[in-house]
Amino acid sequence: MKTHKIPEMKPEFREKMETLFPDKEDFESYLEILKSQPVRSIRCNTLKISVKDLKIQLEKKGWKISHPWKEQEEIMVVENELNPGELGRSLEHLLGYYYIQELASMLPIIALNPKPHEIFLDLCSSPGSKTTQASSLMENTGTIIANEVSMGRLKILASNLERCGCTNSIITRKDGVALCQRLKKFNPDLKFDKILVDAPCSGEGTLRSSYKTYTMWNPKTITILSKLQKQLISSAFEILKIDGELVYSTCTHAPEENEEIVDFLIKQFPNQVKVEKISLPIKPREGIQKWKEKEYAEDVKYSCRVYPQDNNTEGFFLVKIKKLK
Predict the structure, then answer these.
(1) Which CATH class is domain 104-323?
(2) Could you tell me the pTM of the whole model?
(3) Of 28, 46, 66, 286, which residue is 20 to 30 A from 256 by alpha carbon distance?
(4) Which helix (H) or strand (E) holds 291?
């Protein structure tokens, strides 16, 4: 694995990560893997091509393809070196035969497992990686509402949905909280089988691929985002069907944006929230029970913390919640 020099962490961020990784060797392993780029991973878009046929086409180009997870054959890793930009410029990519997606980013939809003919809400949808993944699993049936508040990001979302041939998707442009409140008020009979809240976050888990995170990291931003995330998850939970499932995910390690959000939901809707155990193709760590002066509900431990040194991925967090009567 090639390594390179990385920017220096802000002292407060380094102290935070040392608290999360009290074992010195664990922390050193974390620092070491940050020096390497994530693996080049793609997801076959089975709406347009079979896994077998795509693999044949890519191997004819000289690409060495492997399947990191046996149960998800559509997920592939390009093992050999490519020319700069080749992954995004290939004809197969332009035709929507595959989507370039980091491995950890694929986990929320694997956990949520939307099925054909279901009604699915992707509350914070752009750029569309998880929306297109859901559409593929749903075999272009049912309905996906793909919501995004930013007009600039909305254009990217629309482009990716079109490129991938996702015809079961309806794009909406609305603040996520406002959309949920509007649906609850004006269409109370519309409830969702599955909801994904892939929330805006501080991005602490993206240091391997995004060096700007080193300089942009700010504890005040985390506080602001935590308030927004609580509003998003509680608003989404209200329009989830009884026995429906919601996955909340972020690409950050911050407990204030992860376990604290789950704990908030459990206390906001007593006896209605069941935190489910998740089966994933990687080895996550349990959600933490305590951070600083705060202690979280016991079921928060069923959340999944994905660390780069454990699985050679980016950092991620996800939790699966079922709505009880």
Answers:
(1) alpha beta
(2) 0.97
(3) 28
(4) strand 290-291
